[in-house]
């Protein structure tokens, strides 16, 4: 298997210019494309229903690859279609809230899809409290002031998608543990670019997706569960793959799986996990620490090449893998220059988002800085 640090041709990279959308959809690894043919399509075409043995082994391989890259045991990972699905299943499987402890806490800057799930959880007896937008989510004290006897759980975003701000997960999780609340962590924007070990975060559950920095494509989501929490979960949304013995086929005996699989369900998707499993193994070969160092090296080169008015206004400390830049009045001009380079990037509100991954190089970082030309007004820092 090629080492992507040494071979950037390991990925299909869209043309014509720099691809800067790892925060949205990572590039397709060539080995993942090949594995989809050899371990999903070929067994299907040759053996039909006999392909299930190979297919289920691929899902097991996906869980093992997650554990190898992100820590914890493979048994504590359950495949999910996406983060929202995982959160919905988790909330419905929890014991009903008792007394005053009904509140779920989330930052208003969190990805809206997760907020939508928490809104709907009110029909389960929960309440929702949002930390107001613009608050200091990087300050543990902001969270500590809100986690009291009314808080059932905290949903903390590890890296915020529209600012790049890193949330102090370990401190939040410690406060939750001290005060009797659950801590659920969204690692969609950190998994694969920030080194992390789910087993040492102190979280009750971790939600993630392989579509972004993990380069695994859509549909390969996951939830990691602390085994102490798993034992408390009684999910209503189940199927034969949630069963302790999926191939027992006794309709009279329901026995939930003893591990995270109890949040799985009926007949599973296969193709997304074939793709993502091979992508995870490829990135593990490079190492997340090395991926992060490459990402930071390009961020530093980009900042160093910026006009002086910009350099001190683009923070790197306490940020994830994505540069979130607000050009203010220069937005249209900056976009015109980026488009002239053929750059692949996106915009959320007034913020431009650019992410460097293994397929990017120092020359691209240097060239991108020129789009923020010397005549551009002083930027507005993204929050």
Quick rundown:
With 383 residues, the protein is an alpha/beta fold.
3D architecture notes:
The chain has helices spanning 30-47, 52-70, 83-93, 112-120, 140-144, 169-179, 227-230, 271-286, 288-305, 308-311, 331-340, 362-369, and strands at residues 11-12, 28-29, 77-80, 103-107, 127-131, 151-157, 182-186, 205-209, 221-225, 322-326, 346-348, 351-355, 380-381. It has 383 residues and is an alpha/beta fold. The strands form three sheets. Strands 3-9-8-7-6-4-5 form a seven-stranded mixed sheet, with helices on both faces. The chain has a four-stranded antiparallel sheet with strand order 11-12-10-13, with no helix packed on it. The relative contact order is 0.17.
Strand order of the largest sheet: 3-9-8-7-6-4-5
> Overall 3D geometry?
globular
Give me the strand/helix succession: EEHHEHEHEHEHEEEHHHHEHEEHE
Q: Helix content range of the residues, please?
A: 25-40%
Low confidence ranges: 376-383
Estimate the strand proportion.
5-15%
Termini distance?
A: 40 Å
Number of E strands: 13
- How would you sum up the major sheet? 7 strands, mixed
Mean pLDDT: 94
Task: Please state the CA-atom Rg, rounded to the nearest Å.
Answer: 22 Å
Structural class: alpha/beta
Individual helix count: 12
